[in-house]
Fold:
Amino acid sequence: AQKITQTQPGMFVQEKEAVTLDCTYDTSDPSYGLFWYKQPSSGEMIFLIYQGSYDQQNATEGRYSLNFQKARKSANLVISASQLGDSAMYFCAMRGRGGSQGNLIFGKGTKLSVKP
Amino acid sequence: GAGVSQSPSNKVTEKGKDVELRCDPISGHTALYWYRQSLGQGLEFLIYFQGNSAPDKSGLPSDRFSAERTGGSVSTLTIQRTQQEDSAVYLCASSLRDGGTDTQYFGPGTRLTVL
Structure:
């Protein structure tokens, strides 16, 4: 069965510094996709970044990058130059590519607080 | 363009009543998903629809929960005889297709409170 583990319930970071949010996963599928979502206090889930299991390069999207280490089954999110608006819950998620399961499996999330 | 919309944004109901939650996906998206987010359980998958295929109902917690998708667009999640443990935020998402790379875009959710 697929599983996502986020071991950091809460993180603090100083404004303008970089922060890494950890995510490890478990799957027996040879092909899969990994996603990060941000959920501010307003409640909406905002897509941030995607990494495919066969992608050769780590995904980047503006200030977000994904540190993908396939052998370690980790997909950590790196946020550079943190801003106050980055304070939110962050969820790592996975789905099987091409499998019958269309839904995402989510981790329990990390609450990031950016300090001024 | 317009994102995923959900209504109502908040719903307070009494135990034992039925409720209907609505989701309007992004235009052209063929796949639609329902999730539930509660404090104790995190984000749980409930059901998903892909085109004209039979829905995957494997996440529905009981037979009190059902969903339909009319005309391949709008979806309604119905909870019959609501219980207090049904209190949660119900999130709907849609994606262009149901492929592994297809990003799911979420609506703002419906917060359900069962008294």
Notes: Residues 33 and 52 of chain A are 5 Å apart (CA to CA).
